[in-house]
Amino acid sequence: TAFRRWLRHTYQTPEQLNEAWGNVFWSMELRSFDEVSLPHLTVTEANPAARLDFRRFQSSQVAAYDQMQCDIIRAHSPGRFVTHNMMGFFTKYDHWPLGENLDFVSWDSYPLGFTEQFPFSHDEHVRWALTAHPDIAPFNHDLYRGVGEGRFWVMEQQPGPVNWAPWNPIPKPGMVRLWTWEAFAHGAEVVSYFRWRQAPFAQEQQHAGLLRPDSVAAPAYDEAAEVARELSAMPDVEATPAPVAMVFDYASAWAWATQPQGRDFDYFRLCFAFYRGLRRLGLSVDILPPDAADLSAYKLVLAPGVATLSDPFKTALLAHKGIAVLGPRTNAKTADFAIPVPLPPAMPSLDCTVMRVESLPPDVPVPLTKGGNFLHWREKAEGAPVRETTADGWPALIGDRLRYLAGWPDEAALARILTDACTDAGITTDTMPEGLRCRDAGPWRFWINYAAHPVTHAGHTVPGPGVLWEQR
Amino acid sequence: TAFRRWLRHTYQTPEQLNEAWGNVFWSMELRSFDEVSLPHLTVTEANPAARLDFRRFQSSQVAAYDQMQCDIIRAHSPGRFVTHNMMGFFTKYDHWPLGENLDFVSWDSYPLGFTEQFPFSHDEHVRWALTAHPDIAPFNHDLYRGVGEGRFWVMEQQPGPVNWAPWNPIPKPGMVRLWTWEAFAHGAEVVSYFRWRQAPFAQEQQHAGLLRPDSVAAPAYDEAAEVARELSAMPDVEATPAPVAMVFDYASAWAWATQPQGRDFDYFRLCFAFYRGLRRLGLSVDILPPDAADLSAYKLVLAPGVATLSDPFKTALLAHKGIAVLGPRTNAKTADFAIPVPLPPAMPSLDCTVMRVESLPPDVPVPLTKGGNFLHWREKAEGAPVRETTADGWPALIGDRLRYLAGWPDEAALARILTDACTDAGITTDTMPEGLRCRDAGPWRFWINYAAHPVTHAGHTVPGPGVLWEQR
Amino acid sequence: TAFRRWLRHTYQTPEQLNEAWGNVFWSMELRSFDEVSLPHLTVTEANPAARLDFRRFQSSQVAAYDQMQCDIIRAHSPGRFVTHNMMGFFTKYDHWPLGENLDFVSWDSYPLGFTEQFPFSHDEHVRWALTAHPDIAPFNHDLYRGVGEGRFWVMEQQPGPVNWAPWNPIPKPGMVRLWTWEAFAHGAEVVSYFRWRQAPFAQEQQHAGLLRPDSVAAPAYDEAAEVARELSAMPDVEATPAPVAMVFDYASAWAWATQPQGRDFDYFRLCFAFYRGLRRLGLSVDILPPDAADLSAYKLVLAPGVATLSDPFKTALLAHKGIAVLGPRTNAKTADFAIPVPLPPAMPSLDCTVMRVESLPPDVPVPLTKGGNFLHWREKAEGAPVRETTADGWPALIGDRLRYLAGWPDEAALARILTDACTDAGITTDTMPEGLRCRDAGPWRFWINYAAHPVTHAGHTVPGPGVLWEQR
Lengths: 472, 472, 472
Known about the structure:
The structure is a homotrimer of 472-residue chains. The first copy, chain A, is α/β, with parallel strands linked by helices and 472 residues long. Chain A has 13 helices and 20 strands. Chain A has helices at 2-11, 14-21, 48-76, 95-101, 111-117, 122-127, 136-147, 175-185, 219-232, 250-258, 267-280, 311-319, 411-425; strands at 85-86, 105-109, 152-157, 188-193, 244-247, 285-288, 300-303, 323-326, 351-359, 366-367, 373-384, 386-389, 395-399, 402-405, 407-409, 436-441, 444-449, 455-457, 460-462, 466-471. In chain A, the strands form five sheets. A seven-stranded mixed β-sheet of chain A has the order 6-5-7-8-14-13-12. In chain A, strands 1-2-3-4 form a four-stranded parallel β-sheet, with helices on one face. The B-C interface holds B 21-26, 28, 44-45, 47-49, 259, 261-263, 336-343, 355-364, 380 and C 116, 122, 125-126, 129-130, 160-161, 163, 166-170, 198-206, 208, 212-214, 216, 218.
């Protein structure tokens, strides 16, 4: 009933709903909103536009409920802040509107469990089993700093093995301190640990705490205490924008989950690949909402896989003086989840048309002329200027200051494409050795080493695993 | 209710049903047809004879519905033809009776998607990802030419990437023309493409057409136009029988799905292996129904895995002057889905008894003395003359003009066994290089090359991928 | 309703139930037993203590039903024995109480199918596909001899391929005789074959018998007849205790299935690993119930993974003069399925505390200083004396006569740890070549060779596969 009400509000008439969803196809036309049923349990595939609308509706329910709770709390507890702890890699609802409701956002950081659940290769899973992947927590820090409009807390941080991942190893000694400092480096105002004392009973009895079940300090207690001592010697800092920004759009996660077209096409995985690519070049990254209207702080902006570019963002792109890289699959759908005609990406300042697309099965890479490959996905585009091509002669990267990338690059191809974009944007890059990452926070530069051994780079030797900071 | 009615009609009395199904086993005896329930959701395995009967019943429902529709159309549209488009690798109902109802059959050819879904090895999936496996479409062409009693159309042919396979790559340039000519070479009267224009909305918006969503010609448009020009220069031809025939029996697919006895025993996979084996020897193949009563046109007849040989076919085999190869698992069940006593294959003209059978787990091959292996399945048979043995001394191939093959041969073993059979049958074989296939149609010989590079063979250089034809 | 009644009987008051289950956690407290629902279909994980209690309840229902049947039979057929045939690797109910009800126990031995279903490596599956793993049937023989308080039958033994495993190969020639003699060597009073004649119809038509469907003798008939002739020449023997005992506790299988904490932590697999380790040292093994109160017959006792040690067993351990090895995960839970405080294993005679535990993902082994690795699971323990350490400096084996093993050892590590324990216990070990096993029964020593070739060891050449016996 609520879904029908939402559709009536959105589309006004059944005719306009039919038009938006393309219900003429397969005789799906509806005569009234009462004929709408939930878009599942159909004989064959349900209409993807209906499924996408159901996800939008669901998300709006979450936002409305959050708003209701905020209103109640503010009415009865004036002057207190209101926050809520969000999860990592969670896309069931659009988090950006909640960031507007809440005073600030917080999130629950479980680096080991998230690493296990992420679709890394087996080798990567083995390599990072005891430390987490070096970009897993940072991606979420940067995302939630964006959602929180610059402010966030880590409400729960893993102090040891947890109880819910497929396997639950003990983090390497030093990781609790490393993860904590990394959160601060990314702008966290508070890092809180879940939990204080390991409860010896019920569902979470195997979830470690700062204290053991017998109330003796666990190793994480000492690491947290060490951070507290170190922190007391540090001044407050103001956050500064990163040189690079990337858009993250929950609706695109829904769009590509609704119609992946290739079994392993996953929006979060795509964004994570670009984020990791930037971080391997030593860059700090801001994450922007899909309706970001001002890009003037950034020399380089990425928007991979954004299914439908918003009008504010398109306007901002036109005004942007830096380099922007769109694609693959950016602006590939209308707001009604149809293929736009004229064909995508349909950006006025970009001579580029995507004529057809293909998903690539495992082990069917498409080599690029300058090295590396497209994997998972590529597109047949035409336009000018062509900056890169595939070995079979298709344009791979098209454009000048605004660029379109016609495929999903592997690490080698992405490193080159991002390095070139940074060079053109006037950003200095610094390729990180395996396991090392760099993050700038106000006047400080943090070096964070996830490797098991010390790493010497740029004149510093960073313990492994460990963290080092310096004035920049 | 309809199933009970079908059973009452088939078995007349509960006693005869009990006898046929072996209901004395596990106290399954029924006192009336009203006690029959659907053969699923049982505490342990349901009676396989009941499950097989339910499949027969289902199939009879499809045939009756098709007959009803044909009757209505013919009554109201006299003089028009009636057809229906069938799918590839689809065994839920017996297609042969529908071939009798319809004026001719048609089918929907999606070579890339079918290749992805077929249980090939990972290497084969990679090798054929952009062209399809060279025998995938032809098997179905030959099957539906048989079902259509010599006539068939391709109602839908893939003109580019589709939207429903796990991955949906763009076919290599030239494949649309190649697949079209291949269909004609196998006797198609019409090749129609699905779809004319890519619909930009609803479920199939990622399914390519001859036109793009913006009505510009897609690459397939030009390939189809090229075939049309080429075709207009070709005379009509009459179909001629192939030298080799293979039986395809939907009821056997049901039988071995009901009781595979080895997890990877699949009837379609078995038949495809034999079909591919014949095609790698350069042979054209006809596919026959399980009740084929006249084999006089064929020098070699294969009937692998036919669970229960029909009386007309058994009679035809006795009268057959050529070579016939049965097995593995041929005539291994009575019509009531029991093991026959005397033991199979129980052919009067063949001194061969299968005493026991075994399914073989992965990587447990059984080497043959003359090379190659049995995989998946083998049988302990006795009889004479023994033409081949396994390395552990069991008869592997028994018989003279009528032969029984006591296992599932790998490619090497099958190539030798089929070559020997062809030699004895007076058929000339021509081992094809990787990717090349040959098909005779009336006075024409078609060379079809699925490889990425030109292939020179028998004095011809066939572009790759590409097609070449000559007068024979 | 019955579960609520069982809980009311067990806990008396809702307050005591709440306390035992830790229902204060996540607001799960109940006000009455009528508020208990089945511990499934919950929004998130159901309380593990509730799930474990449901398994206990289920098991008690089985035992009560078995008792009821025994009572009826004994009342109406006085003087007859009552038995029931149990399955291999089946842990849904606690078998030990049934062993007390029945006059003796029997079990159904299907070595090939059990081998296929066991989580061996792919190489092991291939190696043992046609013979079964050499410890698969023996583990169950020894378990059921224990459950039967020294007496058991094999009610069903596989005489050829069966119909229910993923693949159903024919056992190698000689295996039916080998398995039969092996059962006698382990104390079976009777070995009966399932089935007499292969039924040609219904569900089990592909299950081999001593006779073929046409009543001709199958190969197993001759092997059984050979055993019968050999057996008639052998005297009766009395069972003698083995030098080594291992506890097998069904409730621990439930505990670790309820809360594995690592996806591949399986109690049966753990016990099987220790059993195999003992057998590879040429030892005969007795299997004891978790409440074994007298260990005086054994020089070495193992109790890996027993979730909660019973009071009688703890008392017996204190009185034990030999060597005992506990761990990993032994005594890690209270009877209410909570982590005990003080921390485990909390044995008065053992200076050892397990402070935290971790599950290890695939390919993340923990090397031991003396060789081999921990896999799957390890624990951070402290105590003295430390007998072995991991390469990263954690105690791996702690204690003197009573020892705690802080991880799941691979084959190499386990062989050393068990050899050392045997040496200290005064037990002579004899490392078996691949495929060979040794079993002492009264005055006889049986050599059983699962390898495909003859094996010469300790002055004997044992045919392969085959069996040899001698007076000890």
